[in-house]
Amino acid sequence: MARFGMVIDMDRCVGCGACVVACETEWDTPPDSKRRRDWVIDIPTEGSFPQVERSVYVGLCNHCDEPSCIPACPTGATYQDEQGRVLVDEEVCIGCGFCGAACPYNARFFNPVKKKIDKCTFCAPLVDKGLEPACVQTCITKARVFGDLTDPKSEIHDLVYRQGARRLETEEVAIGPNVYYRGDAGRIDMILAHHPPNPKGLEPPLAGRFWEKLARPFMLGMLGVTFAGQALAFFTQLAKGEDFGKFTPPPGDDDQDLPEAMDPARPCRTNATRRQSPAPR
């Protein structure tokens, strides 16, 4: 089974932002949204002439090996498919934002049109048709390389496992991102210095932790007890057989005041028979 990943070559990237425009066009991202599925952020120039270092942060969802966003989702809308892509089921998503708070790379955003959480999917619908992601197709310098990490013959396998492309990880955050960076080490170090993954993002917000650890188990437990009680009552009554539904007088209360049961052999006198009876002379 394929395991998809992406390499961004910092020696080739010029920070033009064509990849961002291609993504917005392909997936109709709202133009007034503060966030995008991917982004290119300028990093302030460091050093002095002639030793000047410049870099840009080219980012997107990392489709991590151990994504912290999945356990944070209260509805199960966020999941990981067999190819390692972290996706969102919009039919199940309620837009609570817990997954976004649990992403240390801040790679998720609330789509104001869909009213759902949105993110990069590695252009799953395109890739499933045999095409490359929109950002890879559009990159004018071929700085993005996409492919199967498990294929020894693929370019991305060579870049990652032979040429040593790096992950944006720290000692506090090491969850296996599958977006790698290669090229000048100083430029990659600048990305980590200015935009390090947030270790506080490894857990959902307080409301999410309360739901996951206390409220949800309590509600499921109460539902279980309720169903168990109903099942016990049903089978108890069922075991009584003929006594089920039979009236039983309270203790100490005799039934002498109850009306006598009608003799089934005695004919019932109806209004019709009364009208047919001869009048007394």
Topology:
Layout: E1 4-9, H1 18-27, E2 38-48, E3 51-60, H2 69-72, E4 78-80, E5 86-88, H3 98-101, E6 109-111, E7 116-118, H4 124-127, H5 134-138, E8 144-148, H6 155-161, E9 166-167, E10 179-182, H7 185-194, H8 206-239, H9 271-276
Parallel strand pairs: 1-10
Antiparallel strand pairs: 1-8, 2-3, 4-5, 6-7, 9-10
Structure description:
Helix content is 30%, strand content 18%. The mean pLDDT is 85. Strand 4 (78-80) and strand 5 (86-88) form a beta hairpin. It has helices spanning 18-27, 69-72, 98-101, 124-127, 134-138, 155-161, 185-194, 206-239, 271-276; strands at residues 4-9, 38-48, 51-60, 78-80, 86-88, 109-111, 116-118, 144-148, 166-167, 179-182. The chain has a single domain (4-207), classed as Alpha-Beta Plaits (2-Layer Sandwich), CATH 3.30.70. It has nine helices and ten strands. With 281 residues, it is an alpha+beta fold. The longest helix has 34 residues, at 206-239. The strands form four sheets. Strands 8-1-10-9 form a four-stranded mixed sheet, with helices on one face. A two-stranded antiparallel sheet has the order 2-3.
Shape: elongated
The CATH class is identified as Alpha Beta
CATH architecture: 2-Layer Sandwich
Number of strands: 10
* Span of the ends, CA to CA: 105 Å
Number of helices: 9
**Portion in helices:** 25-40%
Radius of gyration: 34 Å
**Which class best fits the helix and strand makeup?**
alpha+beta
Largest sheet: 4 strands, mixed
String of helices and strands: EHEEHEEHEEHHEHEEHHH
Kindly identify the CATH topology. Answer: Alpha-Beta Plaits
Average predicted local confidence, pLDDT: 85
Count structural domains: 1
**What amount of the residues lies in strands?**
15-25%
Strand numbers in spatial order across the main sheet: 8-1-10-9
* Uncertain parts: none
